[in-house]
Amino acid sequence: MCAYRPEQKKALVCGAGGFIGGHLVTRLKNEGYFVRGVDIKNHEHKATDADEFILGDLREQAFCRKITSDTTFDELYQLAADMGGAGYIFTGEHDADVMHNSATINLNMAAVARERGIKKIFYSSSACIYPAVIQTETDNPGLRETDAYPAGPDSEYGWEKLFSERMYLSFMRNYNMDIHIARFHNIFGPYGTWEGGKEMAPAAMCRKVAEAPGGGEIEVWGDGEQTRTFLYIDECLEGIRRLMESKVSGPVNIGSDELISINGLANMAMDIAGKKLSIKHIQGPLGVRGRSSENSYILKALGWRPTAKQIDGMRSTYAWIEGEVKKRA
């Protein structure tokens, strides 16, 4: 095990081999933390910046105890989950795995954190916890944190996230733990999954445009008028760190309020690439019709809200994915 300086804060990042977790490790290291990263897999797209990276299965409680047995961590960041984009979450084919795997990880980590005296915990929830019945129009006015109830998530992934929110908050009430929960709204950026069915819409559009020859076509599920907001990874990390340094437990939305259709996202990628392509609409899993983040609470609670323009994040994301496509060619 790597030694740390006595004055360093020590963070355990679960899900450090994933997109957001990998970026979070780098952010914490840049802030001077000693970081132990844990995941069932290595990061697919970049070398980890963690002081230590341990491979293992967080569904196994013995492993969770092992990774917390030799160090007293100041902070735990729990981002590990069985998840993916619409092509993975909304087909219904992975529901049992999604619920079982993610719930087991969260039950294990909450219990082990209590055993080991890790008081300060960040949990990454999702906008998928919001009721589907208030997301039926493309012009979504923005989802407030209080809209979560009466409950009716759009997927089993959302139901598990909502359960785990309540479980962590129960640990806070019963065991005096310092819990901080964020509901992520479609985080994107470089070094994330961009093919294979688990990629999010921004990465999928960038890949399709990068692969298509000029004058060709790309496929978009449904009529493409379904809307979302997408938040660049740097702002997500800023929100996480501000939340953890606050006295706010949440749950708090961490998302953009810049609404865009999937057709608009495809056209944005084309504009960045300088390509004129046609769009072919095909059947596919869609999720809700419209979803946006309402950011009044995060502004009031943290004195900050995301403000970066999506086009800027898409430029960085497209450049990275275009490079990956060229490497594979």
Q: Would you give an account of this structure?
A:
- By secondary structure, the protein is of the alpha/beta class.
- It folds into two domains: 10-187 and 231-254, Rossmann fold (3-Layer(aba) Sandwich); 189-229 and 258-328, UDP-galactose 4-epimerase, domain 1, CATH 3.90.25.10.
- Helices cover 38% and strands 16% of the residues.
- The chain has ten helices and 13 strands.
- It has helices at 19-30, 61-66, 86-89, 95-116, 156-175, 201-211, 233-244, 262-273, 296-302, 310-328; strands spanning 10-14, 34-39, 52-55, 75-78, 120-126, 178-184, 187-188, 217-221, 227-228, 231-232, 252-254, 260-261, 278-282.
- The strands form four sheets. It has a seven-stranded parallel beta sheet with strand order 3-2-1-4-5-6-11, with helices on both faces.
- Helix 1 links the parallel strand 1 (10-14) and strand 2.
- The radius of gyration is 19 Å and the shape is globular.
- The mean pLDDT is 95.
Characterize this entry briefly:
The chain is 38% helix and 16% strand. It has 329 residues and is of the alpha/beta class.
Report the helical percentage.
25-40%
Q: How much is the radius of gyration in Å?
A: 19 Å
Report how far apart the termini are. 39 Å
Number of domains: 2
- Specify the CATH homologous superfamily of the largest domain: NAD(P)-binding Rossmann-like Domain
Count of separate DSSP helical elements: 10
- Per DSSP, what share of the residues sits in E-state strands of 2 or more residues? 15-25%
